[in-house]
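dude i think i finally got it to work??
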Amino acid sequence: MARIADVARAAGVSASTVSYVLSGRRPISPETRDRVLQAVRDLGYRPDAAAGALAGGRTRTIGLVAPRCDDLTAAIIQRMVGTILEVARRRDHDVLLIDPREGAEGLRRVIGSRLVDGVILMDTDETDPRAGLLELSGIPAVVLGSPSDTGLPCVDLDFAGAARLAVRHLRARNADGVALMSPPELIGPPGKGYARHTAHGFQSEAGPTHTVRVCEPTWAGVDDWLAAVTRELGTLTGIVVQHEAALPPLLGLLRREHRDDVTVVPICPSEIAHLLESPVDHVEIPVTAMARTAAETLLDQLEHPGPAESRLFEPRLVLA
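look at this
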């Protein structure tokens, strides 16, 4: 059976560095972390977390599966991760980041090694085997999202309601032909639940002259999207955007083409809306409140075992 010293030797680091990578108690560079985790996988190392746990067999560490991204949405993820870290530390817990690229196998390894007391799962698919694994394992867990096939407590925005609110705001501005700019994650299988919920809400409120179309978040992708939607609708005067990374090119192209007749209402965090060159009315995604609620819900489960309730945040329109 492999020991921590064997992992350290294979990764070319100290045993304490291996411990820090596995516990998440100190920041480690991504390169070193990847090297250590590869050695753990290669050697089949299974640490006995109970040996180092506090009284009662708890590690006082929670796992967090957060998506990796490098576009404008990275700011959202960073804010949510930072909020979860703050809540955990305030309640005397550490956070172990779990690489989402490992999928269900990464969760299975962490749960089997007893490295964490509970898990927060972010960026879920509409049907997500990771949520099913967490539910079957019995470990306390919270989902930041709302997959359709889980009994775990979920924390999310009412995206269908957010889309309906955005369309009603466009109608109040006398928008005629309206379109939903959806992220590629709308397309499945399995697709993202938030994208599906938004599309359903939009279609239920938009009336006869509307369209839903996915868009790549590049200048060329947005240019193609605008051309296709305008051809399809004939008249385009309102756009609901659920694609933060596409907002800068969209607003830039509309300005360049002097499309002052088009009203844009994004569904996004206020932090992103405020970063734009021109402020826009938007339906807020309360990322800080959602992350805080997810962390508090999980930590409450750990301190007071029992069923936990889901929380669906009501959408709110923020005027520029």
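Residues 70 and 245 are 10 Å apart (CA to CA).
im so relieved honestly
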